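Fold this sequence, please.
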Amino acid sequence: MALDSIFSELPDPQSHSFPSYSIPEGDPVMPIAVTRAELSTLLSLYDDFASVDPTGIDSNPFLAATNKYLRQTFGTTLHRPDEQLHDDIAALLNDFSDDLGGRDLGVVDATPKHHQTLYFFLTSCKGYHLAPHIRFDPDESAVETLYDVYERVTEQEFYLKRPETVLE
């Protein structure tokens, strides 16, 4: 499947909304099956994704000098807008890896935060791929794997992992 056809299947960010998982009596999770091969594919896609600098802060000498000046003068630096997404994706991959353990196939608990992270990872990959000033050509099978995992999460019903009863 070509990248353009994978990206065309994504929900439109302008009309997409996440379901409400606000149930006060426990932690909502969506259990999905993941293989070790899928997890390693997602990790390699994440490595490619994290190496992209869409803002140019790391590669532009003017922005590097501005960053150095802000750090010296105000004690703060310029922040890339995708740093939080990188942290969220790393946390998602760590959670899935911990749930999978050393097994080749297992069930992992995807939380609502994981659902959002997978969606933003997919849409950011699409944005990086379509942006003319960014050279991001990920492996088609890796993006397809990411989309498959995302679809599994969206198609799965959620349940309460640690339900609390009225008596507790």
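Residues 28-53+81-160 form one domain. The CA atoms of residues 4 and 152 lie 20 Å apart.
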